[in-house]
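User: My advisor asked me to double-check a structure prediction for Glycine-rich RNA-binding protein 4, mitochondrial before group meeting. I don't want to rely on an old file, so could you generate it fresh from this sequence?
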Amino acid sequence: MAMAMRLPAISRAVTEAASSPVGLRRLFCSNASKFSFLSPQAETQTPARPQAEPSTNLFVSGLSKRTTSEGLRTAFAQFGEIADAKVVTDRVSGYSKGFGFVRYTTLEDSAKGIAGMDGKFLDGWVIFAEYARPREQMPSYQPQNNMSRPPYYGNR
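Assistant: Sure, here is a fresh prediction for Glycine-rich RNA-binding protein 4, mitochondrial from the sequence you gave:
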């Protein structure tokens, strides 16, 4: 009986606490006025990554392992004419590595593709679309001491 009378009061307190930014902290933490949940490093502003210049090529991340190139093409085709869509896959398993590229025929279509698919669900995962950055150039190799074999840079 006493518990039944407390439930509306508790739910009202939680609702009021949730409406203020630090309300839940006050509700669940006895020393909320002394300590902050944020670390000092989190309070400092980190510089944002520079945005890539607009291009027809989009970088899509957050893909499911089951997403195929055809599924990526179908999802982005509603926003414009697609020249190419490719999901980068693992050589051994054949599954997606979690990212891919979509190339539109025009800049306007690529802007529509970003606006339409960035932060949306595809195959049960939230994906992110942005303009692709150009690949960094590999350093040119100049053989020294008559060594003819170039250095190994990995699987690029």
